[in-house]
Prior knowledge:
Elements: H1 2-26, H2 32-55, H3 61-87, H4 94-130
Amino acid sequence: MENRVKKFDLEERLIDFALAIIEVYESLYSSFPAKHVGGQMMRSGSSPAFNYGEAQVAESPDDFIHKMKICLKELNETKVALKIVIKKPLTRNVKLAEDTCKECTELISIFAKSIQTAKNNKITIKARNKH
């Protein structure tokens, strides 16, 4: 049961992250560069919530790892977009973008660790099956 709660919490965290990305997008100036970067940020920043949902019903350990890697790639892309938004700045609310970037960094760490754990578990299972 505790494992289900943790999965639910990460799902909720990813949904909250997607909502924060929407808020950052809504705080962008109406310039072409802001909307261009913002559009990319919206796509990559909302994607992890959807892909994590797919990972939860993965067809195999390899499929799970693959979907988790997609989440990680999208989070890394979002972090770059947020850094651009902050450094330019392209937003009226730099603090919101900075807080969202911090959450993105934390999510990247969680996914990197989860992927490594899944790979290690897969190796352990293969080793057990050989004996």
